[in-house]
Amino acid sequence: MQQKVEIQPILSMNSVEVLYDNVMLAIKGVSIQVPKGKMIALLGSNGAGKSTTLKAISGLLKAERGRVSRGEIKFEDTDITEMLAQKRVEMGICHVIEGRRVFEHLTPDENLTAAAPAGMSRSDLNGEKEKIYNYFPRLAERRNSLSGYLSGGEQQMLAIGRALVTQPSLLMLDEPSLGLAPFLVAEIFGILQKINQEQGMSVLLVEQNALAALEIVSEGYLIENGRVVMNASAEALKSNSDIQEFYLGGGEGTNFHNVKHYSRRKRWLS
Amino acid sequence: MDWVFLTELAINGALTGLLYSLFAIGLVLIYKASSVPNLAQGGLTMVGAYVVLALARDVGLPLWAAIPLAAVLMFGLGFGIERVALRRLAGRPVVMILMLTLGLDIFLRGTTLAIWGGTSRSMELGVSYEPLFLGDIFISRIHLVGAGVAIGLFVAFMLIFRSRTGIKLRAIADDYMASWSVGISVERGVGLSWALASVVAVAAGVIWGEIQGVDQALSLLLLKGLAVAVLGGLDSILGAVVAGIILGVVENVGADFLDPLVGGGSRELIVAAVLILTVMIRPHGLFGHHDIERV
After folding, report:
1. What are the two backbone dihedrals, phi and then psi, of residue A149, each rounded to the nearest 5 degrees?
2. Which residue in chain B is spatially nearest to A152 when comparing CA positions?
3. pLDDT beyond 60 at A251
4. Rounded distance between C-alpha atoms, residue A70 and residue A28, angstroms
5. Which of A120, A136, B2, B98 is the most buried (most CB within 10 A)?
6. In this predicted model, what pLDDT tens digit does every residue of A62-120 receive, in sequence order?
């Protein structure tokens, strides 16, 4: 396990539980820390509670009748557990939700305008837009066509760009690689890394595509069944044989001819 | 064929149509910002007219002061409706919100009946009923005024929807969740759209109240307004204006041909036919967005 370094966390979540509809426990005591300026991945399979964790941080739980029933979430030393989603965006948390969800009937340019913070002047907004178009030149080409007709990759870029307009200090992305061709995933992840390095923006990345995610993050958490079951540096996770087998596909040299047939399971679950 | 008479029918039809547009713009405003057809727009229009009358008759203000003051009050009422009723329904299925607006319409009608009774009151705007002749064509002055108001509001809202606030409203209509995720206040946006629609309701209420008297029947404008809004495409203000003109002309000219054949009452039939055919042939209307499906 990696030693906790002295960098101050921008976000820390302490044994947070989330209840949906007052009955369904979706995450059960998740603790996560995002150090300032770092990229952290949240890995895990379907339904493990990754998206719920992000929604607890961004405050979007309320829209799905969920609530944090235990634990606390701190952002830059402020307790945000009960704060309105809108306030959290103002503080600098932006959540790129799953499935891209661009404003389809608006142009990319208008998508960016829609996300502009209330006090942002027109020239600041234009400067911000240019910066985003520089990161994503494909968007610049199509800035005045209807967003609903952009390709999946372009929509994902737009969703990220739209989040950047809110000037986040913590950017959270929910499965940005979903349904995209590998070269696009590489392109988008490359840009994320660039933004992280150039602007010092902290990133919390939820991914099922662990292989791609572990290439760009410095540290990862593994969530299963609503609990954090592993937390280590990206290198340690990559070389962990269980991770390799269950999340990275394969694992070195497991030759099934030589393996006795017994069912391997995720031992850390029980 | 009497061409002068036909032109007169068409022009007056178009003017009446613009008055439908005046009403339908309110529907479109709310649809554009929250994707809900507001079945209470008729009720709001009626309340708008009653509030103007209350300020003018019961309080004794001159009309030029009563109308703007009513607009301000109704602006507040629009926000209030969002705060009290709609906020807890945000994100729920549209059909629930639809039922809520229906309930609101009935509530508003009942309230006006309780306070002001059911007798028709006149608006007395002071627009002259002297006929206005354009060559040989007779034009009603109040219709001309109403059409002007409709076009004025149309221009104003076209500008508003290009502004940053307007873009945010359109974003809210597209996707509540995504709007929340980038810090757009969906609640305030929906409230604003109701407030603006309530202001439109005052304008429509004053003009229609002048034409047909102020009573609960004003809320029945909803049917024609809906036909216009659907034909134009529920989320297009330009659509509401164009569709209003089309419906007005078709209704006026068509009724002139059909009424002698069926013995009257064909106006309603024409409106109903337009509504049904639009939904069947072109569900997103003339200028409305269709759902984008990528394959």
Report:
1. -100, 5
2. B294
3. no
4. 9
5. A136
6. 888 899 999 999 999 999 999 999 999 999 999 999 999 999 999 999 999 999 998 89
- Annotate B247-260 with b (16+ C-beta within 10 A) or e (fewer): bbbbbbbbbbebee
Specify the DSSP element, H or E, that contains B142.
helix B141-162
Residues of chain B with pLDDT under 70: 1, 292-295
Q: How far is A228 from A248, CA to CA, in rounded Å? A: 18
pLDDT for the residue A72: 94
Q: Which helix (H) or strand (E) holds B44?
A: helix B41-53
Q: State both tokens at A171.
A: 């950017």
DSSP per-residue string spanning A130-183: HHHHHH-HHHHHTTTS-GGGS-HHHHHHHHHHHHHHT--SEEEEE-TTTT--HH
Contacting A with CB below 8 Å, chain B residues are: 90-91, 164, 167-168, 170-171, 173-185, 289, 292, 294
Of B182, B184, B292, the CB nearest to A104: B292
Tell me which chain A residues have a C-beta less than 8 angstroms from the C-beta of B184: 86, 114-115
Residues of A with CB under 8 A from a CB of B: 58-60, 63-64, 85-86, 89-90, 94-97, 101-106, 110-111, 113-117, 146, 148-149, 152, 162-163, 165-166
pLDDT band with cut points at 50, 70 and 90 for residue A257: low
The one-letter code for the residue type at B198 is S
Residue A124 has pLDDT above 80, yes or no: yes
Number of Cβ within a 10 Å radius of residue B190? 28
- Are the Cβ atoms of B289 and A105 closer than 8 angstroms? yes
What residue ranges do the domains of chain A occupy? 9-250
**SS3 category, B189:** helix
Q: Does domain A9-250 have CATH number 3.40.50.300?
A: yes
* CB within 8 Å: A105 and B174: yes
Angle at B191 between CA B188 and CA B192, to 5 degrees: 85
What per-residue confidence (pLDDT) applies to A241?
81
Where are the domains positioned within chain B? 3-218
CB contact under 8 A, A115 and B182: yes
| Minimal-distance CA residue of chain B relative to A57 | B181
Looking at per-residue confidence, does A5 or B143 come out higher? B143
CB contact under 8 A, B178 and A86: no
Confidence of residue A254 (pLDDT cuts 50, 70, 90): low
Least CB–CB distance from A163: residue in B90, B167, B182: B182
pLDDT tier, A1 (very low <50, low <70, confident <90, very high otherwise): very low
Helix (H, G, I), strand (E, B) or coil at A67: strand
